[in-house]
Amino acid sequence: MLRCAGPEFPDSAVTGFLRDTFQAEFAGAGDIDLCGTASRHWADSPEPVRMEPGRFHSYAVRHPLARAYQRTRRPDPLRLSDVAPPWHAPPPYGGTGMSRVLAIPLTVGSRHICAVALLRGGADFTALDMRFAGHLQPVISGIYALRKRAGTVSRVSGKGPADTCVLLTARETAVLELIARGLIAPAIGHRLGISPHTVSKHIESIYRKFGTHDRATAVLRGQALGLLTAPAGPR
Fold first, then answer.
1. What is the percent of the chain where pLDDT is above 70?
2. Which residue stretches of 32-165 are H helix?
3. CA 3/CA 10 separation, integer angstroms
4. Rg for the chain (alpha carbons), in Å?
5. What is the DSSP string of 139-150?
């Protein structure tokens, strides 16, 4: 998920992974504007859902799950069956037999609710599904928050790493690339032919230059600055 492509998180690679993992028929991310009409959806999987302007907003703001999150303000995964009796969704999602819904919230606030929604027909999502969704929720919402923070960092120009406001040495860039691949200090040292202590010094320097304090934020900051290139799909 940290390495997903595109400026927005989650992207269709992430929602596709969640759709397959939970054996859903459809997955997508949506942001519900509770104070206006700027609700939007993206990262639909297996394919984008086309609808008229404003159609998603009118569908989303009155959905029982949206009302439940607006009432409780708790970012817990919820099934539609947890909060409402059987509910027949209007188009574009209705009429397809996908009456089972599982929402994994990314953020729940007074102005916006952002979540990944998983839809399927047949049997409802199980207690095991809900426990797994509960483990995933802080991971997904944490990365979503980090990407929003990293997205506020801008380049001085768009020509490449040499034009960014943060400059890393060649060795620091190599260390950051290996951090992004999930390697820890001993493995990075082995790959680069340096000691783990030296690797730790490079990591400290990266954190200081980026103004970060952890690996995940450093990777996201490196991507936002153009020092790292996100691949075309998940690892």
1. 81
2. 55-61, 64-72, 80-83, 127-150
3. 11
4. 20
5. HHHHHHHHHHHH
Nearest to 86 by CA among 101, 96, 103: 101
**Beta strands 26-33 and 112-120, pairing class:** antiparallel
Predicted structure pTM score: 0.64
The CATH number of the structural domain formed by 12-150 is 3.30.450.40
Q: What is the domain partition of the chain in residue ranges?
A: 12-150, 161-224
For residue 156, give every residue at least 6 positions away whose Cβ sits within 8 Å of its Cβ, in sequence order, or none. Answer: 163, 164, 165
60: its two tokens: 């989303």
Q: How many residues does the chain have?
A: 235
pLDDT tens-digit series, residues 214-233:
898 888 888 877 777 655 44
User: What CATH architecture applies to the domain 161-224?
Assistant: Orthogonal Bundle (1.10)
Nearest by Cα to 139 from 12, 44, 18: 18
pLDDT digit string (tens) for 131-142? 999 999 988 988
Q: How many angstroms separate the most distant Cα atoms in the chain?
A: 61
